[in-house]
Design goal:
By secondary structure, this protein is an alpha/beta fold. Helix content is 38%, strand content 22%. The protein is globular and about 50 Å long. The model has no long low-confidence stretch (mean pLDDT 91).
């Protein structure tokens, strides 16, 4: 099982006419939905409102097979919202109205227990006061489960770049799998190369660092070596949720190879180039499929299998 911790929100995505349509979103929630659609048993710890948007998100999560952790805060007066504007090239830009509260005392005691992996990232790891609870949870669970982290930086909400960078590095130091975008690294460390930073993050404690390169594909590194894959060709509708879909594809691919779990850290750190390449290719496939339709709408395992059957017909 994989436990995901973080925000759920509604994306109000503007179409070309400027009309906004509500879509379920929130980076950690997107990861949870994508994992469940890929056949991974998935639990989400989140915070939801008691309004119509909250009901929309509950139905979306349940419809994709995501289990809500009982410690989730489910009775907030309003649900967090992001307004998303999609440029002509499909790239998304965001404005947020979001709150991430502290969790009630002792409610986090069982979160992540029995999971092979605990994933978090994005706003849940930077917005006070809830971010402090998330960091404490990661520190407490690291001995018993594998930790996955995606900074998914939102500069408008992260304050001073230097302070944000220190926080990201603290989170990297308690994580095993770190997935980050080239855009994130460009904001956190302008002018520095992603390969240099990836290896630096290994030295801070990560076991596997993966950098998504947009239309340049993806690159990954462990202490044993590195691998890179090209982006999978797709007609881009928008990029909303693409990074989250990649993260889910990455974790699902690792899980299918028995590379998740605290007891599998050494095995993960020792994977060779061929395994890294195949894992990256599978994650890129999930992300590409998501870019091919509106909003954060990741594919199912059956859809990916159908794609592969078409690309490799029987001869």
């Amino acid at each position: 099982m994989i436990t995901v911790v973080g925000e759920s929100l509604v994306d109000l995505i503007e179409d070309p006419s400027g009309e906004a349509v509500a879509h379920p979103g929130g980076s950690p929630a997107n990861v949870a939905v994508a994992l469940a659609r890929l056949g991974q048993p998935t639990t989400l710890l989140t915070q939801l409102g008691a309004d119509a948007y909250g009901r929309l998100l509950r139905a979306h999560l349940a419809g994709s097979g995501v289990r809500l952790d009982p410690a989730s805060v489910l009775d907030l007066p309003g649900t967090s919202v992001a307004r998303t504007r999609v440029a002509a090239d499909g790239q998304a830009r965001y404005d947020f109205d979001i709150a991430w509260r502290s969790f009630p005392d002792r409610t986090l005691a069982g979160v992540g227990s029995g999971s092979h992996c605990l994933h978090t990232g994005s706003l849940a790891t930077v917005l006070a006061p809830g971010a402090d609870d998330v960091l404490a949870l990661l520190r407490d669970r690291r001995a018993s489960t594998m930790i996955s982290y995606d900074p998914n930086c939102r500069p408008a909400l992260m304050g001073d770049r230097t302070t944000a960078g220190h926080l990201v590095e603290e989170l990297v130091s308690v994580s095993d799998v770190v997935k980050v975008s080239l855009e994130d690294l460009g904001w956190l460390h302008p002018g520095r190369g992603h390969e240099e930073l990836g290896r630096e993050w290994l030295a801070r404690g990560a076991v596997l660092v993966v950098v998504t390169l947009g239309d340049g594909g993806a690159w990954a590194v462990t202490r044993r070596g590195a691998a890179r894959v090209d982006a999978r060709p797709i007609r881009v509708v928008d990029t909303v949720g693409a990074g989250d879909a990649f993260t889910a594809g990455l974790l699902a691919a690792l899980g299918e190879r028995d590379l998740l779990g605290a007891a599998r850290r050494t095995a993960l750190g020792g994977v060779g180039r061929d395994t890294l390449t195949s894992v990256l290719a599978e994650a890129a496939h999930v992300a590409a499929r998501t870019c091919g339709r509106r909003g954060a709408d990741p594919p199912t395992r059956a859809e990916l299998a159908a794609d592969l059957a078409v690309s490799r017909p029987d001869t």
